[in-house]
């Protein structure tokens, strides 16, 4: 039994080590590692542009570019088809490209604290999307295609420019068990 526990502990340790090896916080090291990169965290790097090299990391599952000064998301983001989590919060992004809808494995999308006004209709292609945070944006409305995101269980749209009528429309289009946080002026629960 002791031998079994030793082998189990060693196996668990190797798995943990392998998982940690796929997490990067340095862009140059991530580029060198290439296809082995699963998680890339580049928050607070004072980036003013989306690092295009990231789009070549074809096995990337989590990308965190929060708390930078990025203004634009390139169309090439569509190459990141394995991406499950994307955090672009606290940047200066003023528009969301339609190519974002090609990230069909995306489950978590954090776009809060940016200045965009609209989401593309292609967001409806994100059938696996569970979490969408667009708090503190200039968002006025969401496309009707958001209704296709049937797995959405959390939507934060609080500090935005959504009118009460629009908020009511959004509430009705989403799954009933989805937690929806609307502006304080909304009377739609």
Structure characterization notes:
The chain has 189 residues and is of the alpha/beta class. 20% of the residues lie in helices and 12% in strands. It is built from 3 helices and 8 strands, in the order αβαββββββαβ. It has helices at residues 2-21, 27-33, 164-173; strands spanning 23-24, 39-41, 62-64, 85-87, 108-110, 131-133, 154-156, 179-181. α2 (27-33) links the parallel β1 (23-24) and β2. The longest helix is centred in the N-terminal third of the chain and has 20 residues, at 2-21. The radius of gyration is 19 Å and the shape is globular. The termini are far apart.
Keywords:
189 residues; alpha/beta; 8-stranded parallel sheet; 3 helices; 20% helix; globular; disordered N terminus
């Amino acid at each position: 039994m002791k031998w079994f526990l030793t082998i189990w502990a060693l196996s668990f340790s190797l798995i943990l080590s392998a998982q940690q090896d796929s997490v990067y916080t340095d862009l140059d090291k991530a580029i060198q590692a290439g296809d082995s990169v699963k998680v890339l965290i580049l928050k607070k790097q004072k980036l003013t542009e989306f690092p295009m090299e990231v789009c070549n990391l074809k096995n990337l599952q989590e990308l965190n570019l929060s708390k930078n000064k990025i203004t634009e998301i390139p169309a090439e983001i569509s190459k990141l088809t394995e991406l499950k989590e994307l955090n672009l919060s606290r940047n200066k992004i003023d528009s969301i490209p339609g190519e974002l809808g090609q990230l069909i494995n995306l489950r978590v999308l954090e776009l809060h604290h940016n200045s965009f006004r609209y989401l593309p209709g292609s967001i409806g292609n994100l059938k696996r999307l569970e979490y969408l945070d667009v708090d503190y944006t200039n968002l006025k409305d969401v496309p009707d295609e958001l209704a296709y995101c049937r797995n959405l269980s959390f939507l934060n749209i609080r500090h935005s420019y959504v009118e009460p009528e629009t908020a009511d429309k959004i509430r009705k289009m989403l799954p009933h068990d989805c937690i929806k946080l609307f502006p304080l002026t909304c009377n739609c629960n």
